[in-house]
Amino acid sequence: MARTPKSHRLTIANTRQTIDCAANQTVLEAAIAAGIDYPYACATGNCGTCTSRLDVGKVTLLPRNDACLSPQQIKAGQTLACRACPRSDLTVTWLSRAER
Ligand code: FES
Q: Ligand 1 site: residues with CB under 6 angstroms?
């Protein structure tokens, strides 16, 4: 019997919505599946369009182009929604569009 991956609560600060995000799902995948208009372009860690601030929580980052998310950006609390899988409940804010 297949085990269901652990799920975490994901809050998108821009839209003030909280959804479920499985541990094997990216923040972007969960947001799109929930109908949230999260900014993205490549969805493969190569453009930086989905750059977000990790306000609360911890993520595992999938392989990405380091030019799109530098170690300095990670230290500053930024992440790529299309490469970030939750390790805890999360709150993220996307940075590429002006907040409404
Ligand atoms: S959408 Fe291109 S880096 Fe995430």
A: 40-43, 45-50, 68, 80, 82
